[in-house]
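Changelog-linked ticket: thiamine diphosphate example.
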Amino acid sequence: MTIARERVTEERRLERVTIRFAGDSGDGMQLTGSQFTRTAAVFGNDISTYPDFPAEIRAPAGSLPGVSGFQLSFSSTHIHTPGDEPDVLVAMNPAALKANLADLPVGGALVVNEDAFTASNLNKVGYAANPLADGSLSAYNVFRIPVSTLNARALEGLELTNKQVDLTKNFFALGLMFWLYERSMEPTIRWIDEKFSKRPVIAEGNKRALRAGYNFGETTEIFHERYIVPPARLAPGRYRNITGNEATALGFVAASQLADRPLFYSSYPITPASDILHQLAGYKNFGVKTFQAEDEIAAIGAAIGASYGGALGITGTSGPGVALKSEALGLAVMVELPLVLIDVQRGGPSTGLPTKTEQGDLLQVLFGRNSDSPLPVVAPATPAESFDMAIEAWRIALKYMTPVAFLSDAFLANGAEPWAIPDPASLGSIAVPNRTEKAGFFPYLRDPETLARPWAVPGTPGLEHRIGGLEKAEILGNVSYDPENHHRMTVLRDAKIAGIAKDIPPLDVYGADRGDLLILGWGSTFGAIRSAVERLRGRGLAVSHAHLRHLNPFPANTEEVVRAFRRVLIPELNLGHLSMLIRARYLVDAIGYNRVRGKPFRIVEIEAEAERLLAALREPVA
Amino acid sequence: MTDVTTALPVLTRKDFVSDQEVRWCPGCGDYSILAQTQKVMPDFGYPKESIVFISGIGCSGRLPYYMNTYGFHSIHGRAPAIATGLKAARPDLMVWVITGDGDALSIGGNHLIHSLRRNVDLRIIMFNNRIYGLTKGQASPTSEFGKVTKSSPYGTVDYPISPLAIALAAEASFIARSVDTHTEHLQSTLEQAGRHRGSAFVEVLQNCNIFNDGAHREFTDREVRDDRMLILEHGKPMLFGKDRNKGLRLHGHQPEIVTIGENGISEVDILVHDETDPLISFMLAHIYWPEFPVPVGVVRRISRATHDELITNQIDQAIASRGKGDLAKLLAAGETWTVTDDGT
Ligand SMILES: Cc1ncc(C[n+]2csc(CCOP(=O)(O)OP(=O)(O)O)c2C)c(N)n1
Ligand code: SF4
Ligand SMILES: [Mg+2]
C-alpha cells in the first residue's frame, strides 16, 4: 500500500563533492566517471579526476583484482586534487565495496547495487555475511538500490540479450548521480547517440538506463536532499576538459608548429603511454608521422634518425621502455641531436604496477646511462600543464641540441582537469635554423652562448660530415681517442646542460619565501602538496611550497630557496630521488616523505607530516 | 652573370672518398667493398649531400667515415631502426645501411627483420665474415657449427643461420649476395641494389684475414669459384662450372646438380631463374657449399610500395579529405565552455 504524498526534496549548496564509482572492470566505471566529469566540467565546475584501474583487461568477474574505480572531485572553488576521500561511494558489487570501503569516511554516502550482493559474489571476496544485512555498515549512510532489476525492467521490450542489458547498468548509476547533483543528462545522451549511431538499439538501451536512474532519484524517496555545486570562478577564457596524455600529445603538435618542423613520434605500446601514440596517429593532416616500432630500442632509434633528418623526433614510453632506450639515449647525448623522450612513469621495478602511478624514474632518466651523460629533464605538475612542458621540452632540445626527458606519470596521464585553451598566436616561436652556411662549418663547433653544435641536416650541400657514438674531436668532430680531448668534451657536454639553468624560470615559492618549512615537490604531487600548504597556511603556520618543473638543471635560485627555510620536506612517490639530489647538490638536510602505493598522496598525510616536522622544531633541544 | 646550368655536376668515385684515413687491417675484405661502393655512387643521380650512410658497430661500421657523404656511425645493431626513422622523415634521401653478421643478425636481428618487412627504402649491405671482427674473434651467428673461436675453444654448439633465408622470411623486396674479391660482380650487385626501390638486402661474403682468414675461400678462390658458385641471372638457366655444363634442376621440389650431356640432360632441363618466384628464392636462400654451388647475384626482386610512400600517402590523403590541420581548432576540439569576467 502506498500513500500519495507531496514530494519534498531539500536542496543544499555544497562547495565541493567527491564521488567514487567502483565496480568490475567490465562494469564500465571508467566511462561512467568520465561522463560525469565532462558534464561537471561543461557546467563550469573545477574538476580533478583519478581513474584507478587494474592491469588485467578483465580479471575474473566479481573478484577483488578486477575492481576498477574512478574518483572525481568537482567544485565551485579552485581545487588541486581529486579529493582524499569520497563523499559518495557507488559500489556496483561486493568486491567494489570491499576494495573501497576503507576510504569512505564515517557518515559518507554509500550507494550499492544490492542485486549484486548474491551469495556467490559475497563468497568470491570472502564476506562471511552480507554486509548490507549484518549491521557492519551502520557508520555510513547506505542506499541499497536494486540497480540490476530496476534497470532490466526499464529496458524491457528492447531487442537486447540479458548480457547486453546488464552492461548498461552503469548508466543507471550515472543517471542517479546526475539527479542527485542536479546535472543535465544532455551531454551524455549526445555522447551515446554519437557512439552508438550505428547500433540504435544499444543507444536506446543506454539512454533508457540513464533516464531510469535519473527518474528513480526523482520519484522515490530514498534521497531526501539534492546537492548543488555551483560553477567555479575560473579565470576568464574558453575551457575544455583535458587529461595529461591528451595535453602531452597536443603540446607536441603545438611544438612542431612553433618550431616549424614536422613531428615524428615513434613508440612501442606500453601502459600508461600508449594513448599518446593513439592520439598522435590521428593527426596526419598536421603532417604528424607516427611509427609503431618493433621495440623500444627501435622506437628511439627511429626518433633519432628523424631528428638527424631535421624533424622533431619524439619517443614515448614508460619505465621499462626507458631501460631499453638507455644506450640510444646515450647516443643522442653523444651526437648532440635534439630529441624528446616521454616517460609516463608507472610502478616498478620491472613490469611492476603497469596501471598505477609512481615517480620512480627520476634517477633512471638522469643517470641510467653509461658514463657522464647529462640531459635536461622537465616534468609537468598537472595534467593541463603537460601542454606547456611539452613545448618547453622542445624549446630546450632545439636551442641546446640535446635530448630532453619529459617525465609524466600514470596519475597525470589519466587524470583530468579544466584547461584554459591557449590561443596558438600567443605561443612564442621555438624555431631554430638549420646550418646551411658552408664557410666556417665544423660539426662540433659550438655556439659560444648555448654551447650547441650546428644542426646540419642531410641534403645540405657542402656540409657532408660524419657523426656517431665514438668520441669526437672538439670542433672538428672527427673520431678522437685523445685523452685530453675526451676530458674536454665530457666537461663541455656537462657545461652545456648545466648552462640551461640561466634560461629557465626561477623556482617560484608559494607562500613566504622564508620560514619554518618548505615543502618541495615535482611532478604530479603538486595538487596534494599545494592543498596541504593552503590548509597549513590557513592555520597560520610558516609553511611554503615550491614545485620543480625543471629537474635538470635545477633553476638557478634553487639553493637560495631551500636554504631560506629551517626544514625542507620532499614528498615523493619513490624512496627519495629528489631528496637525494637536493642533499647531494646543496648539502641541505632535506627530509623525504616517501610512499609507493601506486596511488597519489592524500592531502592529509602531507599535512600530518608537515605538522610533525613543525612540532619537532618547536620542541626545546634537550 | 654566370651561366646557370641545370645539369648535375658529373661525379666520379673520387668525389665520394672522404679525407679520413682508412683504418681496417691491411688485406681486409672491407677495402674492396668500400672501393666498389664508392665506384657505384655516381651512378644513381643523387647529389652527394642527399646520400646517407648509417652503420652499426663492428669493423664494417667504420665505412661511413670513409664516404664523403652524410654519415652516421650509430650503435650496435640499431642502424636499420635509425635509418627507418630518417627515411620516414626524409623520403628525398638515399639511405644506405652498413652492417656486419653480428650487428645485423645477432644484436640487431629484430631491426633487420622489421625494416625488411616494412619495405623501408634502404640498401642494407651486410659484411659477412662469419666472425666478430672488432671484438677480436668470437663466434658469430653465421659461424660454422663447431667452429673453434676465442669464445668457443671446444667448438660452437650453435647452428648458423642463413642471412638470405632471414631476409626472405622477412619479405625483403630485393635480396642478393656477392663476394668482396669478385669486384665486378660486387659492383654490379651494389649497383642493382642502389637502383631498387624498397628494402634491398645484400650479403657480401667478406674475408677477415686476421680472425677468420679464408672464411669463404673454399668456393670463392679463383681456381675453384666457377665450379663452386652459381651466378644468378634473371630469366637464364642456372648453369655453372668452368665449362658451363653443370646446372640445377628440381627433382620433385629438391634441387639437384646435373651435367648437361649426361643421362640425356640438355639445357631445357635446367631450372630458369625467376627473381619473383618465392619457391625459387627459397631454394636459393638455402643451398650452400659443399652440397651445392653457392648462389650469388640477385635471388629475389619484387616491387611493392615502400614504407615512406605509404606514410606520405596517408598524410596526403588526410590533408585532401580534412584539410591541413588547424592548431587553434585542434586545441579547442570537443566540448568547451566559456568563463566570462563575472566568473560565470
Ligand atoms: C651494446 C654493445 N654490445 C657489444 C658491443 C661490442 N661489439 C662491438 S662490434 C661487436 C661484434 C661485431 O661483429 P660483426 O657485426 O660481425 O662485425 P665485424 O667486426 O665482424 O665487421 C661487438 C660484440 C658493443 N659495441 N655494443
Ligand atoms: S679484424 Fe678482420 S674484419 Fe676487422 S678490419 Fe681486421 S681484417 Fe677486417
Ligand atoms: Mg663479422
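Closing comment: Example verified and attached. The domain at 3-215+305-309 of chain B is CATH 3.40.50.970 (Rossmann fold). Chain B touches chain A through 63 residues (CB under 8 Å).
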